[in-house]
Description:
seven-stranded antiparallel sheet, about 50% helix, rod-shaped
Amino acid sequence: MFEIVRLVRAVCELLLSLGQPLVSLLVQPMVTVILLLFLYAGWHVRDEGDILTGLQVAFVDTRAYRAEHARELEAAMLQAELRQAAHTDRLIGQLLSALLTRAPLAARVRLAVVHNGLTGVTGVALLRFDIVNATAAAGHSVGTFVVNQPLSDWSDFLPGLVSGRCQHRMTSSGSNLSMRARLDSLGAGGFLACPVVDIQDRMLGALFITWDTTDPPPSGEAMAALSDYAISIGTQVASALDLRGRLSPLSGLGGNAALGGSE
């Protein structure tokens, strides 16, 4: 603040030294400008509660500068988000491909992630799921990537998933009509659902391995071995999802709901 006062005095002395006619012409507008600058700086100093910070906000970090800086920061964060998503998707795709290779005659592997959905009449968020990644064997499609579907579609096998176990089901035996319709559209005669559980024992989603009606799934020890391998792949997928959430500059799994693990 004292530096500004000294600057005003120096300008006035300079004007006086230039002669009376010039002084009469320039003093009034110069003083007006200086007073306005003084008031402008003082207003920011008062708001910031500090002289140096107030002057910086007034003359360096202007509102336009901050808006431009915010736009640049948002663009940089978006690019970082895209790179992180691409890296995570590539890693998850490799894991799903490895699982498909170990599943005899399987048509496809799909990853579903659980999240908070719509709020019901009770005010409680209803859990839902999205199909976010998939891979298919030669001659098969990965199917539609459905989103925001009610978790009640998994009612037949969800308790087993929450307890950390894989669940093998035949399409024809399912009681949920929506789930059966989606499996029928894929030509799936049966599926193996395995939980995606992170190191904190939270279930983030599930892996679905499907077999066509003409290709029976394995049984006995082969199915048990496949289930164990699928659970280990699910743990690695959960780590990838968790890594994306922690490194993402915008968002990740922070808004997702995780089901509790085994009691």
